[in-house]
Design a protein that fits this description.
Length: about 375
Amino acid sequence: MNLRKIILSILGVLLIIAAIYAAGLIVKSKKVPKARPNKVVKTVFVDTVQNGVVPIIVSANGNLVAKQRMELFAEVQGVFRRGNKLFKTGQEYRAGERLIGIDASEYYASVQSAKSNLYNLITSIMPDLRLDYPDVFPKWEGYLRSFDINKSTPPLPEMTSEKEQFFISGRGILTNYYNVKNLEQRLSKYTITAPYSGVLTEALVTEGTLVRSGQKLGEFINTGVYELEVAVSKIHGELLKVGKAVELINLDRTKTYTGKVARINGRVDQASQTITAFIEVIDDELKEGMYMEANLNAKEETDAIEIDRGLLLESQQIFVVRDSILDVIDVRPVFFSDKKVVLKNVPDGITIVEKPVVGAYAGMLVKVFDEKGTTEQTKAIE
């Protein structure tokens, strides 16, 4: 009985081993078909090269500044008086209008007193002139008749002889005359008039304010003419000419203006190696402080093409398409802008890649974009 159990146990073990071995053979004999990867052919946009004349446009930017600007400072002391217009920011004035008026009542009285003294002094010498210098008496008499104390003191008559000059100077008339003119000159500083039509861009005082000598009162600009200061690389400095037309574009890129190069700084900035140019522009819509972009036509490059900078490889090469295969050719870049590059040594009629291709390499199989409207970027091939 025990022998029988042993035999059955051995047979069971052998059957299990045989089953495992058979399963292993079955697994090894099974062939798993390998997956065939789909070959992806990328679609590329191309263009046929036609060399021509490419204008080299140097871009620069900056903010508009009024060409004529006047900072208003007080040279005398007094109370600020209201004029015909409020002294407020944004107030417009015509040429010759009073911008600022400072109370000069007390000083005006001293000027009138000095004028009166001069008039009396000249009157006192008239009898001596009639007797001793009858030939010059008429012109001094005419001067007294034209003398108006409420107007600016007229120039003294021209002295034609040394005797006349010594006599007039000895009586202190010259000293008094120049003293009066000095007072009148200072009196004129109590009123500031607009030298040109414009607008007040800064007002630091109001009516009734006590103004002190040397105090800044405001700022006045001419709204007719503006300048744009731009920094241009010294490489293109020699290409700029005074009077050359320049296209200006506003920040929103909705409107263009035409300016001209007004001045070019003769010194190169040592830090940035740039030259400062000033572009003058006239337009009623412009305001000071507006951001503008200037496109300066520096020169023209012949037998060249212009492409996106992203298409130029670090090895100074670009991709071309030959029989649906990508290839590279050597080129010579002659000008770089922010987004474009001007190239030479590109043969006419060759097909170049117009837009960057991700993962592109020489020998890559590609499909040219169908101009009839194909929009597929890739295609699977069995």
